[in-house]
Amino acid sequence: MKTRTWILLLGALLIFSLAAAFFLNRPGETAAFAQITSQGEVIATVDLRMDQELTVETPQGGRNVITVKSGGIAVTEANCPDGYCMARGYCSGGAQIVCLPNRLVIRFLGEQALDGVAG
Question: pTM above 0.85?
């Protein structure tokens, strides 16, 4: 192959890589609400703009403490053996938070928007 062909091929590969990096590293949407389910049942839908704390207990002895603070939500305490749900930290959107041993799921709902116009 000619040198010019190699240069075009490498240039196209570079452009593709940069475009992929840009689209894959974009921050997720910021949710306005989060829905908390335990054992497949909706326990609560919380407003992420209001600081609060909830404790969810299961009949099997599972316990999760969920904290909403500064627009984010996190599992701050759990008696599950692995603790992966607590490792996520505070989230305000994106992938759901799951505590599989306690069958707890936190899903993000809606995108935050301005409530009014300043004038």
Answer: no
**Which residue shows structure tokens 């936190």?**
106
The answer as to CATH 1.10.1740.10 being correct for domain 33-109 is no
Positive/negative CA dihedral, 104, 96, 89, 33: negative
- Which residue in 92, 118, 117 sits closest to 106, CA to CA? 92
Question: How far, rounded to the nearest angstrom, does the alpha carbon of residue 110 sit from its chain's CA centroid?
Answer: 12
DSSP-derived 3-state class of residue 118: coil
Q: Which residue type does 79 have?
A: N
Query: Structure tokens of 78?
Result: 């759990």
Dump pLDDT digits (tens) for 56-79: 999 999 999 999 999 999 999 999
CA dist., res. 43 & res. 46, Å (int): 10
Q: Where are the domains of the chain?
A: 33-109
Question: Are 51 and 69 in contact, with CB atoms under 8 Å apart?
Answer: yes
Q: Which residue in this structure is represented by tokens 């994106």?
A: 94
